[in-house]
Amino acid sequence: MGEPMDLVLLSRLQFALTVMFHYLFPPVTIGLGAVLVFLEYRWLRTGDRIYHQAVRFWTKMFGINFALGVASGIVMEFQFGTNWAVYSRYVGDVFGSALAAEGIFAFFLESGFLAVLLYGWDKVSRGFHFFSTCMVALGSIFSSVWIVVANSWQQTPAGSHLVERTVNGRTFVRAEIVDFWSLVFNPSTVHRLNHVLLAAFVLGAFFAMSISAWYLLKGRHVAFARRSFTGSLLLATVASFAQLLSGHFNADMVARRQPAKLAAFEGHFQTGEGGTALYAFGWPDEDSRTVKGGLAAPKMLSFLVYQDLEQPVPGLDQLAADYGAPPVWLSFQAYHIMVALGMLFIASTSLACWYWWRGTLFEQRWLLWFFVFAVALAFVANETGWIAAEVGRQPWIVYPMQTDAGLVGGLKTSDAVSEAVSSGQVLGSLLMFGVLYAFLFALWIFLLDRTIRHGPDSLEPAVGPEAGTPLSAIAQRATHLYGE
Amino acid sequence: MDLNLTWFILLGVLLAGYAVLDGFDLGVGMLHLLARGDAERRTFIATIGPIWDGNEVWLVTFGGALFAAFPEAYATIFSGFYFVFMLVLLALISRAVALEFRSKRASAAWRRSWDVVFFLSSTLATLLFGAGVGNAMIGVPLDDRGIYTGGFLRLLNPYALLVGLLAVALFLMHGTIYLHLKTAGSLHERIYRWMWRGYGFFVVMYLLATAVTLVAVPRAIASLHSYPLSWLAVALNVAALAAIPYALYRRWSGRAFLASCTTVCALVLLLGLALLPNLVTSQPLPENSLTIYNAASSPKTLWIMLVIAVIGMPFVLAYTSTIYWVFRGRVQIP
Q: pLDDT tens for residues B239-259?
């Protein structure tokens, strides 16, 4: 048995590693799902084979990301129990309904119809295939709905109360459900869900734009790449602008519901007189409790939170006693990187739309090169968003509930780890995941690179149920899929 | 019938669904290295390629439902069996990656490496699932807060390993019968012989495990006395086991598969009856056991989940059958 502190730290590191690795994939599949629905709809409407080629290609990309998302996703479900047993006992009753809904409504839908999406081209009608594509896209959105519901309840609990329970003579406290719908629509669910889905659309669109831009620069598959690029550009532009609005609503909600988190995002250590400044960037120093070398807009934070230039926003000096003190440096940087990247996405997609309207988009090689690499920034924006949300919630794993009588309950992260697990065991599993995920990451990059170099397949004859008998169709499909 | 018992039964349904569906694709994985040459191995993977992922969702949903309905049991099992679950994760992730990425390159070394990974991960996962069932049967040490107090090695006791081997034998038999259903030509004829061996191996393990269980797990016999339904489960099990060789002899692969599925379901039913009302049996202090009552979520949560399951399950069954229908027929790769 090691020190309890080590156990908490190691468990958190393992959770951070596994969830951040996992979260590379679901937003890509959510975003690409929307792209696929659009492209396949266009193919059905116009009969244009370029769209068919595009759907087939992006389906392959979707499949690679989905496989890794599933492989790394099962770890997350197990890990609540393996590493966070106390937390699981505390939240089980509340998470129950959301988890049941996720499994039954989302996972079965996704994985079932994915089979048709990936392997069913020669076996079902075009209409049924399109239906399956829609179901997979819908399923991936559904699964994000329920996991964000559960996570939002952790941030802003509602619809539940604390109950003392006795098992075999021992008494402990857990959260129990009171009202299903106020649990589902707790104060942060809708804002956070919008933010997560828009971020996923931005990432999926940037993913498709990156690969298309590379083809355009290399002069390969140009007709295909142009259609994929412009379709994704529209999605990315709309989602980036909508994300600005969603971001504002989220910050507003955080200011009211989790004021210490907002103070950490803004490096706001000391409550001052008059309006509070908003930092564009800076270096918060937790020792001197100031932000060093930053650039700030005076009174802007007060204006954004209260629409009042003079009302001071409470700082961590006032909030820490009730809400606890989140780590400021990490919250601040993660939040500011996310916001800055969001602004960059708005600027770059707007510029691209402007050139597109002028008809010169595909001559702007520097901009296309930017989009080849910008997908990495979209991944970073998604990850830093979650870092800000989760680190800003500390020291709580389940935030205390705001009631008329003040803050009630809550579960500290340091109290939530498994009783039966030692730090040595967690160190062992952390190393295992480190090695395994490094390998999977390399495999992912290798397969993406290979698929991109291979490019979309040349046009094939029309596909439909008349393509052959079931037996020969399976043989064709299997040959097609499982090797040349 | 009370809600707690309803959820115990629903968990049993999810577990049976998982064992029947993922059982055959784990079996295919364990048989994979017996396939000769790349075409046969591609055939093996093609028989499960489109559906294995959906099959594994039954496990994910089982885990989620256990967490939701009986959080105390979920927390105790998952944290107590820490290294076992880490090994299960290692096996499931490696298996998923091997299945999805084996055919992405033509290189023989690449494919052979993934073939070995696919075989090892399928075998390890099956063995560990079986060992888990064995520990559930024989009981594990719990303190008065329902927390596991044994070590890692205690989970790999001889009885648990015996049940692990029983699971390997069961899924091997189940996998050969599934492959027989889905293949054609000379491979199909070779698999016919494997089915008999798979069946023989399973019967030997089944008799051995039954004999040891009757001696080592008094709860199993007690359940025969307290629940007359148990005799029905035993009868179902024996009938299904007897039906398999007859169907094999008559070369009815569909019916043999049905009988094999029934065998799996009957074993899950027997497991449930042996456990009831416990989820985690405490041994040597049985008063510390986690039951479907002291480990459960509130009645309100169980009720909401039931409503969700009643609305959702018909859809799940409808499109699961649709997908199996779409991918029906034999796979033949020249």
A: 998 998 898 888 888 888 899
Give me the helix-helix angle, A108-119 and A49-83, nearest 10°. Answer: 150
CA dist A150 and A144 (Å) reads 10
* Pair B228, B210: CB distance under 8 Å: no
- The domains of chain A are located at 4-191+422-481
B147 vs A153, which has greater pLDDT?
A153
Instruction: Give how many domains chain B has, as a whole number.
Output: 1
| Chain position carrying tokens 């595909």 | A362
In a domain, B331, yes or no: no
pLDDT averaged per 10 residues, chain A (length 484): 69 93 93 90 86 87 87 88 90 83 82 83 85 90 89 88 78 85 89 93 94 90 88 92 91 84 82 78 80 78 80 81 86 91 94 91 89 94 93 89 81 85 87 92 89 78 41 43 40
Is residue B149 predicted with pLDDT exceeding 50? Answer: yes
State the nearest Cα–Cα gap between B254 and chain A, in angstroms: 17
Instruction: Write the single-letter amino acid at B132.
Output: G
- Sequence-separated (6 or more) residues with CB below 8 Å from residue A6: A423
Tell me the pLDDT tens digit for each residue of B254-313: 888 899 999 999 999 888 888 888 888 888 887 788 888 888 888 888 888 888 888 888
How far is CA A88 from each of CA A184, A342, B60, B305, rounded to the nearest angstrom? Answer: 18, 34, 16, 17
The residues near A91 (Cβ < 8 Å, ≥ 6 apart) are: A150, A153, A154, A174, A175, A398, A411, B71
CB under 8 Å to A157, separation ≥6 — which residues?
A94, A175, A186, A398, A399, A400, A401, A409
Pick the residue from chain A with its C-alpha nearest to B72: A89
User: Do the beta carbons of residue A76 and residue A19 sit within 8 Å?
Assistant: yes
pLDDT score for A267: 80
The neighbouring-strand residues paired with A176 are: A161
Q: Which domain does B43 fall in, by range?
A: 3-326
Domain assignment present for residue B332? The answer is: no
Give how far B154 is from chain A: nearest CA, Å. Answer: 14
Cα separation, A33 vs A134, whole angstroms? 8
Residue B131 lies in a domain: yes
What pLDDT was estimated at residue A460?
Answer: 52
**Residue B121 token pair:** 């991960």
CB contact under 8 A, A116 and B326: yes
Cα separation, A478 vs B251, in Å, equals 26
- Positive or negative torsion for Cα A316, A319, A322, A326: negative
pLDDT tens profile B194-234: 988 999 999 999 999 988 988 888 877 777 787 777 888 88
Contacts of B42 in chain A (CB under 8 A): 478-479, 482-483
- Both tokens of B54, joined, read 């959906």
**What backbone phi and psi angles, to 5 degrees, belong to B192?**
-60, -40
3-class SS string, A171-182? EEEEEEECCHHH
- Alpha helix segments (H runs only) across B185-298: 185-216, 218-226, 229-249, 253-275
**Which of A109, A124, A167 comes nearest B326 by C-beta?**
A124
First to last CA, chain B: 55
Residues facing A284 on adjacent strands: A291
Query: Alpha helices, DSSP H only, in A102-164?
Result: 108-119, 126-155
C-alpha dist (Å) from residue B110 to A183, A328, A459, B27, B40: 49, 47, 29, 22, 16
Tell me the backbone φ, ψ of residue A262, rounded to 5 degrees.
-60, -45
Token pair listed for B104? 């992405």
| Element at A123 (helix H, strand E) | none
CATH number at residue B284: 1.20.1630.10
How distant is the Cα of A172 from the closest Cα of chain B, in angstroms?
Answer: 10
B289 occurs within a structural domain: yes
